[in-house]
Amino acid sequence: MSGETILVVDDEPKIVKTLRAYLEETGYRVVAAGDGRTALAAFRHERPALVILDLGLPGVDGLDVARVIRKESDLPIIMLTARVDETDKLIGLELGADDYVTKPFSPRELVARVRAVLRRASGEHDAPPPTVVAGDVSIDLERRRVTVAGQPIELTVTEFELLVVLARNPGRVFTRLELLDRVQGYAFEGYERTVDAHVKNLRQKIEPDARNPRYILTVYGVGYKFAED
User: Fold this and answer.
1) DSSP characters for 112-169?
2) How far apart are CA 184 and CA 190, in angstroms?
3) CB atoms within 10 A of CB 53
4) 8 and 20 in contact (C-beta within 8 Å)?
5) How many beta carbons lie within 10 A of that of residue 213, not counting itself?
6) Which residues, in sequence order, are CB contacts of 129 under 8 Å at separation 6+?
7) Domains plus CATH for the chain?
8) Which H, E and C letters describe 62-93, residue by residue?
């Protein structure tokens, strides 16, 4: 953790100052940007370990910044938003963001989420079997690689963790809150619908037909399960 670079993108100086203080106290190096163009330049030059990205940026919108970053990298993105419209949050998650936090927020909670996402990105786990295979899907847990019918698939940190939880428990039904707790380490009411966006992305990447999924099945009124062989 020590010395990892976090890119904080927000046009509110007080928020940037607060986040910088909390993150640096935890041991991270912080690079800040106040608009989308500066953020993309910093992303390419600094190669941060994680981006904290405000959606409401002047000029280039935060969603556009997330879209560009995700095209070029699979590094974790945590969105900040003051917007109450859930559509923006879901769009951000569908673009590949790993998490979101609604303003006003607790800086300590956000730092805890940063740490949790980076732990998952580094592959820290309790010595699971090296590979999980289900049908054409193969998950290499040590290298954090996924292939479908032998073809490598690029997943975000959250998508990878979600797939692992489901695939290692075929047939078990998980509620959305259970998946949030397993994947992101917390389960807050109001955040459970973010799971739907991650599942949608995951299906598009691993399913032969995302509209008629073979692997990740919806249990209506409850949540999701991974198909049994």
Assistant:
1) HHHHHHHHHHHT--S---SEEEETTEEEETTTTEEEETTEEE---HHHHHHHHHHHTS
2) 14
3) 27
4) yes
5) 17
6) 141
7) 5-122 (3.40.50.2300), 131-226 (1.10.10.10)
8) HHHHHHHHHHHCCCCEEEEECCCCHHHHHHHH
Token pair 């786990």 in the structure block, residue: 125
- The single-letter code of the amino acid at 204 is Q
pTM above 0.85, yes or no: no
CA distance 115 to 126: 17
Q: Is 85 left (phi over 0), alpha (psi -120 to 50) or beta?
A: beta
CA distance 140 to 147: 8
Tell me the C-alpha distance between 75 and 59, whole Å. Answer: 23
Separation of alpha carbons 188 and 92, rounded Å: 18
Buried residues in 56-72 as b, exposed as e (16+ CB within 10 A): bbeebebbebbebbbee
* Residue that is written with structure tokens 């078990």 in the block: 172
Residue-wise pLDDT tens digits, 161-217? 899 999 988 888 998 888 887 776 654 555 667 888 899 999 999 999 999 999 999
